[in-house]
Amino acid sequence: MADAEEPETKRRRIEDPTEKMAVDSAHQDSACDWRGRWSHVRKFLERSGPFTHPDFEPSTESLQFLLDTCKILVIGAGGLGCELLKNLALSGFRLIHVVDMDTIDLSNLNRQFLFRLKDVGRPKADVAADFINHRVPGCQVVPHFNKIQDFDTSFYKQFHIIVCGLDSIIARRWMNGMLISILSYEDGVLDPSSIIPLIDGGTEGFKGNARVILPGMTACIDCTLELYPPQINFPMCTIASMPRLPEHCVEYGRMIQWPKEKPFGDNALDGDNPEHIQWVFAKAQERADQFSITGVTYRLAQGVVKRIIPAVASTNAVIAAICATEVFKIASSAYIPLNNYLVFNDVDGLYTYTFEAERKENCSACSQVPQDLLFPPSAKLQEILEYLTENSSLQMKSPAITTTLAGKNKTLYLQSVKSIEERTRPNLCKTLKELGLSDGQELAVADITTPQTVIFKLNFTP
Ligand SMILES: [Zn+2]
């Protein structure tokens, strides 16, 4: 766990009147701790039991640490975030920051229970923090209406534990990379005090997962990147000839009949156009009838066309509860944390399973092993670009490739700035040899999936 700041400085910082949402500076005395307030938590921290950690000494200090010192960062104030904030606040954590870049949408209100109709349009982080601070006396949630990329290492280093409730793999990977960049090594040995544990929760419909990551020690997000399929697509042969699911019928209408029949001329299928969806729905219904498939509805058609994965409140509740429990276990050191990857599925009955995800020896994020690029000198830069984006353990999004040639930095390809993209685009068709690259050359690759530049070593193959 990262070195805690002195409690004194920490308190002074939080009492700073410029700090938004710092509502109650008297939290550290027991003004708001009525009798029995923490009796539920004390049962776990002030006595031992069959599941307590072998080194755990029951005492009253753990609770004081949670209440006064332990600083938690929650990333995301959406479906998982609302649950996490509520769970953490009610478990005794009072120094909580929350980062979310979104504003509240009407469609969030069915499950993001810290928000009300009057809050639509306001930043999620602000409203969530406000709600918790008013509802849970002594709790000081500090909101940040920001992207995670707006902050640097000094911001993230102040926390003891970080919990992610994100719906984006890119953001997860970036956060993972940030915590890895904070690690310090002495003579190749990891300094354990530089580790900030990352608890990551994710849900998709009725499926979810929760994991505990000790950066530099246990499997990180990028170690298990192969587990995230790049895109959920049905095989074309299934759609074309052996549909089994209502979704296959909708895909038939969308992918095969729409381009062939052009019902609205050359217009592309628009998921927000009810006439378009109606057309696809009717086609899907026809197809479903032919193959005796039931379950095609307008809503389903729209969901498939727009690739909507419905958010399920109960899945969020389960995953957030698991994540908050892990935060509690790690913060108190009273129980052995989850080791280290839990999957949950209640599509059909209820299934859960925990396994130990293993570190990948040459993980591009956490291994410190130089990454090799094996290409012949006759390969084109385009092939390297494709490798970086398509390789299942890299899955970069828009990599920018630079190198040093004759002592000068040279950008080989960069996508995100239009003028540079245009200027460097011709390089894509050039071979590595033509670009002047040599065997053993280092290529620095920057991408939105990581805050750090990844160094690749070019190894020429025959
Ligand atoms: Zn890794």
TrEMBL record:
PANTHER family: NEDD8-ACTIVATING ENZYME E1 CATALYTIC SUBUNIT, UBIQUITIN-ACTIVATING ENZYME E1. It comes from Muraenolepis orangiensis. One of its GO terms (cellular component) is cytoplasm. Residues 373-461 form the E2 binding domain. GO terms for molecular function: ATP binding; NEDD8 activating enzyme activity. Residues 1-26 are annotated as: Disordered. It catalyses: ATP + [NEDD8 protein] + [E1 NEDD8-activating enzyme]-L-cysteine = AMP + diphosphate + [E1 NEDD8-activating enzyme]-S-[NEDD8 protein]-yl-L-cysteine. GO terms for biological process: protein neddylation. PROSITE patterns: UBIQUITIN_ACTIVAT_2. Keywords: ATP-binding, Ligase, Nucleotide-binding, Ubl conjugation pathway. InterPro entries: E2-binding, ThiF/MoeB/HesA, ThiF_NAD_FAD-bd, Ub_act_enz_dom_a_sf, Uba3_N, Ubiquitin-activating_enz, UBQ-activ_enz_E1_Cys_AS. Transmembrane segments: none annotated. Belongs to the ubiquitin-activating E1 family. UBA3 subfamily. This is NEDD8-activating enzyme E1 catalytic subunit. Pathway: Protein modification; protein neddylation. The active site is at C237. Residues 7-26 have a biased composition (Basic and acidic residues). Catalytic subunit of the dimeric E1 enzyme, which activates NEDD8. The lineage of its organism: Eukaryota, Metazoa, Chordata, Craniata, Vertebrata. Its EC number is 6.2.1.64. CDD domains: Uba3_RUB.
